[in-house]
Design goal:
The complex is a heterodimer of chains A (282) and B (270).
Chain A: H1 2-23, H2 26-46, H3 58-73, H4 77-109, H5 111-126, H6 133-140, H7 144-167, H8 172-180, H9 185-223, H10 228-237, H11 241-269
Chain B: H1 10-15, E1 20-29, E2 34-44, E3 49-53, H2 60-67, E4 75-80, E5 83-84, E6 92-95, H3 107-111, H4 113-119, H5 121-126, H6 128-137, H7 153-165, E7 171-175, H8 183-200, E8 204-208, H9 211-217, E9 220-225, E10 230-236, H10 251-268
Parallel strand pairs in B: 3-8, 3-9, 6-7, 7-8
Antiparallel strand pairs in B: 1-2, 1-4, 4-5, 9-10
Helix pairs in contact in B: 9-10
Classes of the chains: A mainly alpha (282), B alpha/beta (270).
């Protein structure tokens, strides 16, 4: 009897606890965590436990955020740099999407692609792709081209893999249905396999959106030029850590914009699939 | 043999030429030299509902695929309405275990899909009136413009019945169509299927695992045995039409089921 009572008490407490967390709105939980992290950050720098050269104070960072923001809004040199990086990311993503999708269809739809092309793609994909940066610089120079190439190179593979996986996603019965309806190979590809694979393809595009940012910035670190990556490297070499922090923050806005454009497109084109705010599949 | 009486108009059916006719069919898979089917002979007449029953792997799916023109036979002749089946044909309607509706198309767009694939988009649009009549027939007329994600399992299968019927096929091939549904829905759908087949005078061939389902729906049941796949008996079901679920409890029904179970059971212990 006693045991039974204990269990039921526990259950009640547990349920109430869960209900409490559920009642806290998301914005409040996020703000709370933000305040805690910034509070610890402020404490650590204020007490001198960490040198301000290594970790600037929140106040300094905020001041620099305003400075960089002002520079961007008034269209000074930082805006040019951000524009250069934006173009690099845009071209890189477009090229990766085009090549990745085409290779994905080749691999997913043809025996030749699956047997002959895929092994090479897997082999290249396992290499550290950043190591190709010097090659791209040698081939394409210190201009935007070498950065676009590196960004596209990194972002292509997730799209190839996702597209190929997407084309395999149609079930045996669905394929049989199309066969029984006398559908041509092209009809089966366009009206069954591709639409069925769209959720997979968008997952690949989201991974690529993260990769293309990393590729563009790495390219700018290694190859100089006029982009945001060059500004970050410059600030870091001058030990201007607040600047590095604020540049990274503004750069992350570019990454978020690209990512959520893909999420928006997914909701628009894969309307039958339920997608949550973070772009994950429910 | 079973004491079940032949169907009242059974004699009449036999006199018309068969809709579907298979003679001395065999299928051997060259890859592993497996004999899937041997000496299968089969005649299905107009308005007849024929089922095939057998254990898993007895070759009934292979037979259905050959009948649908999805798989070539090794030897023998396969004729639908006097013409050999050499590939998928518009006068064959098919239904699968899953409804296989495309989630990005509305119910009515899914139903006219066979026409869209064969004759293009404008022909599909022209078939909307027909599709709406079919939706009414299966009791789904308010769901024409709904996406399949909003349909229940039973409703989805009713929509796939419409898709099967839209091109007005001469032969319906049903591959365990309701086996993925829960039992209550399945019973209801079987009665619906009977009603639709009677109303349209359809000729149907059903592959099933369920003895009750086969007996309640069929005019004839072909009992199949594996290794190699062959038809061992052609059981005529004399229960009057329209059938209803209460018939399952009659001694007549029980006798037929027991007889077929006996035929299948011997195999299970070999």
């Amino acid at each position: 009897m006693t045991t039974t009572t204990n269990i039921s008490t526990k259950d009640t407490v547990w349920e109430e606890h869960e209900a409490l967390i559920d009642r806290v709105p998301r914005w409040l939980a996020m703000t709370l965590l933000f305040v805690i992290v910034v509070g610890i950050w402020d404490l650590v720098t204020r007490m001198g436990w960490v040198s301000v050269i290594i970790l600037p104070t929140p106040a300094e960072t905020l001041k620099d955020l305003f400075f960089v923001g002002n520079n961007l809004i008034s269209g000074k040199y930082m805006l040019d740099a951000l524009w250069t990086t934006t173009l690099t990311v845009f071209y890189g993503f477009a090229i990766a999407t085009g090549i990745g999708f085409s290779l994905g269809v080749l691999v997913g739809e043809t025996k030749f692609g699956e047997r002959a092309v895929m092994p090479y793609l897997v082999a290249i994909d396992t290499m550290p792709k950043v190591a190709f940066a010097p090659l791209f610089i040698a081939w394409l120079g210190f201009d935007i081209g070498s950065k676009v190439a590196l960004a596209a190179f990194i972002a292509t593979f997730p799209i190839v893999v996702a597209t190929a996986a997407g084309l395999y996603a149609a079930t045996e019965n669905e394929r049989m249905l199309f066969k029984a309806m006398g559908a041509t190979r092209m009809q089966t590809l366009l009206r069954l396999k591709l639409p069925t694979g769209l959720p997979y393809i968008f997952t690949g595009l989201k991974i690529a959106a993260v990769g293309v940012m990393a590729g563009a910035i790495t390219g700018e670190f290694l190859g100089g030029g006029k982009g945001f990556g060059a500004l970050i490297r410059q600030a870091a070499s001058q030990l201007n850590t607040p600047r590095v922090f604020s540049l990274i923050l503004y750069l992350s806005l570019l990454g978020l914009a690209l990512y959520f454009t893909v999420v928006w497109a997914q909701r628009r084109f894969v309307f039958w699939q339920k997608v949550d705010q973070k772009g994950g599949v429910v | 043999m079973v004491e079940a009486q032949p169907q009242t108009d059974g004699q009449q059916i036999q006199q018309t030429p068969p809709v579907y006719e298979i003679e001395r069919l065999s299928k051997t898979y060259a890859r592993n030299n497996l004999v899937a089917l041997t000496d299968v002979n089969l005649r299905i007449h107009q308005r007849e509902f024929v089922s095939i029953i057998g254990s898993s792997g007895c070759g009934k799916s292979t037979l259905l695929k050959i009948m649908a023109g999805l798989l070539p036979p090794t030897t023998g002749s396969v004729m639908l309405e006097g013409r050999p089946v050499l590939g998928p044909r518009p006068d064959i309607g098919m239904m699968f275990q899953q409804a296989t509706l495309l989630p990005w198309k509305t119910t009515i767009e899914n139903i006219v899909l066979p026409i869209e694939i064969r004759e293009g988009r404008s022909a599909a649009k022209a078939a909307y009136t027909r599709a709406k009549e079919l939706l009414e027939l299966v009791g789904l007329k308010d769901f024409a413009n709904v996406y399949p994600g909003e349909l229940s399992g039973g409703m989805a299968q009713r929509a796939s019945i419409c898709r099967m019927l839209v091109a007005d096929p001469a032969m319906l091939l049903l591959d365990e169509p309701f086996s993925a549904l829960d039992e209550l829905t399945r019973d209801f759908m079987n009665m619906e299927l009977q009603r639709i087949c009677l109303e349209r005078g359809a000729t149907a061939f059903l592959v099933t695992h369920s003895l009750d389902e086969a007996v309640i729906l069929s005019d004839r049941i072909l009992v199949m045995k594996p290794r190699p796949g062959r038809i061992v008996e052609d059981v005529k079901i004399g229960l009057p039409r329209p059938r209803n679920l209460e018939m399952i409890n009659t001694p007549e029904f029980g006798q037929i089921v027991a007889h077929i179970r006996g035929l299948l059971g011997q195999e299970a212990y070999q």
